[in-house]
Design goal:
InterPro entries: UstE-like. One of its GO terms (cellular component) is membrane. It holds the Pfam family DUF1295. This protein is mainly α. Helices cover 75% and strands 0% of the residues. The protein is globular, with a radius of gyration of 22 Å.
């Protein structure tokens, strides 16, 4: 494919990515305009009244139609399910602003602003990592797991993809964002637990950034070595990757569990369900990643040793050769 066609595809995907959330944005702005206008005009509207009294349900409805259905239709047209990846970083930002701006919102101002700022920092970090990994191309490829599932489902993938990709993302993203909803429905003074939550969130962002940067440098270096016809480095076991096999996932989990601490402090510990589901999801993804590594003949032996000596998710000290021998005995 020529550079001109690649540039055209990239520009087209950028335009699509910026236009696709407009239905939800315009609908919500219309709702806010009606609510802040003449009360008698919107109180007679069943739609606006429902939107006013059910902020959490409204978020789910907008997600279903704008992301699940619209993203799915666009993916069918393009024959590529790429858009949900960059929007994983954007949707939480949209949700935190949605919950904070809803007419029924009530909250402690500083807590709200801190969480909004942290969410923007998290989003920028993750979007930067996505674009850097994709060589600053939008929609150049879909996630390898989607490609793998498409091969499994075969001719049924066109409809199965809706249930395999988009509905699970609604459950995960709405679930993970439940602390945003809690933070903007409870007005309570800041406490020491808010500081704990901030430390956990910031630690997660920093760890994920460092781990992703180390992974990016590792992949880039191997690409250079391949280009020079030299042997590649088989396993990334330096930096944070020395202490666990998935430090990027560990950092991501810290971020979401840090948000749960905010909600827990406000008396709504039930909002942990999203973070728990995401933890289980990342545990499963970790398993898929490792199975993929073991299928590469050149890396299999080195990776098996890496598995035996290195913690899976939580950073910890490596097992020594003597410990391995005692376990095998």
């Amino acid at each position: 494919m020529g550079s001109g066609s690649v540039s055209y595809r990239n520009l087209k995907n950028v335009i699509v990515a910026f236009l696709v959330p407009l239905p939800s944005i315009l609908f919500y702005l219309s709702f806010l305009s009606a609510i802040h206008g003449d009360p008698s005009s919107w109180s007679r509207s069943t739609l606006w009244t429902w939107c006013y009294h059910h902020p959490l349900l409204l978020a789910n409805v907008l997600f279903f139609f704008n992301v699940n259905l619209l993203f799915w239709v666009i993916a069918l047209i393009q024959s590529c399910h790429w858009m949900i990846d960059p929007y994983w970083t954007v949707i939480p930002v949209m949700l935190v602003h949605y919950y904070s701006s809803h007419p029924l919102a009530q909250y402690e101002w500083w807590r709200s602003r801190i969480v909004i700022l942290l969410t923007w920092v998290w989003s920028i970090r993750l979007l930067h990592n996505y674009l850097r990994r994709e060589k600053w191309q939008w929609g150049a490829r879909e996630d390898w797991r989607s490609t793998h599932m498409s091969q499994q489902y075969g001719s049924h993938w066109w409809w199965a993809s809706f249930f395999a990709i988009y509905l699970p993302h609604q459950l995960l993203l709405i679930g993970l964002s439940l602390p945003f909803y809690v933070i903007h429905t409870v007005d309570r003074r800041l406490s020491i637990l808010d500081l704990v939550a901030i430390v956990v969130c910031v630690s997660g962002i920093v760890i994920a950034y460092i781990a992703d940067t180390q992974l990016y440098n590792f992949v880039s270096r191997n690409e250079e070595l391949k280009g020079l016809g030299k042997p590649v480095v088989l396993i990334l076991d330096k930096g944070l990757w020395y202490y666990c096999r998935h430090p990027n996932y560990f950092g991501e989990l810290l971020w979401w569990w840090g948000l749960v601490v905010f909600a827990w402090n406000l008396g709504h510990g039930w909002s942990f369900v999203g973070a728990l589901a995401n933890t289980m999801c990342l545990a499963y993804v970790s398993k898929l990643v490792e199975e993929r590594m073991l299928k590469q003949d050149c890396r299999a032996e080195a990776f098996r040793l890496y598995q035996k000596t290195t913690s899976v998710l939580v950073p910890w000290f490596k097992s020594s050769p003597l410990e391995l021998k005692s376990k095998d005995a």
